[in-house]
Design brief:
Layout (H helix, E strand, L loop, with lengths): L2 E5 L3 H12 L3 E5 L3 H10 L15 E4 L2 H5 L4 E4 L6 H6 L10 E4 L12 H9 L6 E5 L4 H5 L4 E7 L2 H10 L5 E6 L2 H23 L4 H21 L10 H12 L4 H10 L4 H6 L6 H15 L5 H12 L3 H9 L7
Parallel strand pairs: 1-2, 1-4, 2-3, 4-5, 5-6, 7-8
Antiparallel strand pairs: 6-7
Helix pairs in contact: 8-9, 8-10, 8-11, 8-13, 8-14, 13-14, 14-15
Length: 331
């Protein structure tokens, strides 16, 4: 029997754990708080993030991370991007030989400018062939409800990607395998930043032309960075690129879009962060993504303006003015 550990009991970690369990894998969720682990085991429900949704009987929880990863064929990381290094270091010594590490995270580490798969390989001291990523139009609540969705599971080892594909294939969740880890990760990380911008436009009352323009030009700057870093350009027209971008920029279920909306309505970053909510990865990762782009001399004007709003005190209206005032050029 295949066994998986999911580190992180937020909505996406729990939903993907449910997918794995529904596909026939025995799953253990790691919850930071004992009371949440107890609630999952007693009620087969995650009351904090997916209340009212019954979880499969072959999905259990523990507050002991080493217990969670012991003997796991797949170790799924579903923690905030900037906390990945510390969380993985705590369990690296307990990983089973040959275990495939799976990233559900969509960000770039501050300081090192490493993608999540690079951080995982470094901290766990495993080859890139043992690290996979899952990326696509995967709004957690819809998947948890069993609504049809597709995704990409990517690993430089095609056979490992296919094993993860088989372990997560259900009647409602259709994974496609891929070997372009760089493209899948960048598509997932940068779309959060573009969703912040699209949300700002929504919050300011701007229309569909504005939002479509931001999404399209956002995809262009994602692809520019990806190609420089070795990604396959075709990845950005697929589920991990365009698909994820559309879902994240368009849905009120998207944390990054919702965060951007609040900025667009005039709330400050501090006011929004003070509200209890799940992590909007783009708020922190926009800085590391811009630093990565500058390191490789890649022009990313939307990302640059999102950083200006989130971290330099500019208003969303000033950002729109700056973007519209850029020098004319060919597409």
């Amino acid at each position: 029997m295949t066994r998986a550990a999911v580190l992180g009991t937020g909505s996406w970690g729990t939903a993907f754990g449910k997918v794995l369990a529904d596909a026939g894998t025995d799953v253990v969720l790691w919850a930071r708080r004992q009371e949440l682990a107890d609630a999952v085991n007693a009620t087969h429900e995650n009351p904090d993030y997916l209340p009212g949704l019954r979880l499969p009987d072959n999905l259990t929880a523990t507050s002991d991370p080493l217990e969670a990863v012991a003997g796991a064929d797949f170790v799924v990381l579903a923690v905030p991007s900037q906390s990945l290094r510390a969380n993985l270091a705590a369990v690296a010594g307990g990983l089973a030989p040959g275990a495939v590490l799976v990233s559900l995270m969509k960000g770039v580490e501050l300081g090192t400018l490493k993608r999540m798969s690079e951080v995982m390989a470094e901290v766990a001291d495993v080859p890139a062939t043992q690290v996979a990523v899952v990326s696509g139009p995967n709004l957690a609540k819809e998947i948890a409800l069993g609504q049809p969705a597709a995704t990409v599971v990517a690993c430089t080892d095609g056979a490992a990607a296919e094993r993860l594909q088989a372990a997560s294939m259900t009647r409602y969740f259709r994974p496609y395998s891929n070997t372009d880890v760089v493209g899948c990760e960048l598509g997932g990380a940068v779309k959060n930043v573009i969703a912040l911008a699209t949300g700002m436009a929504e919050g300011m009352g701007l229309g569909d032309n504005t939002k479509a323009s931001l999404m399209t030009r956002g995809l262009a700057e994602t692809a520019r960075l990806g190609v420089v870093l070795g990604a396959d350009p075709l990845t950005f027209s697929g589920l991990a690129g365009l698909g994820d971008l559309i879902a994240t920029c368009s849905s009120p279920l998207s944390r990054n879009r919702t965060f951007g909306e609040k900025l667009g309505r005039g709330q400050t970053l501090e006011e929004i962060l003070a509200q209890k909510q799940q992590t909007a990865e783009g708020v922190k990762s926009c800085r590391s993504i811009l630093d990565l782009a500058r390191k490789h001399d890649v022009d990313m004007p939307i990302t640059e303006q999102v950083v200006a709003v989130c971290h330099e005190g500019l208003s969303p209206r000033e950002v729109i003015k700056a973007l519209m005032g850029r020098e004319a050029r060919s597409e």
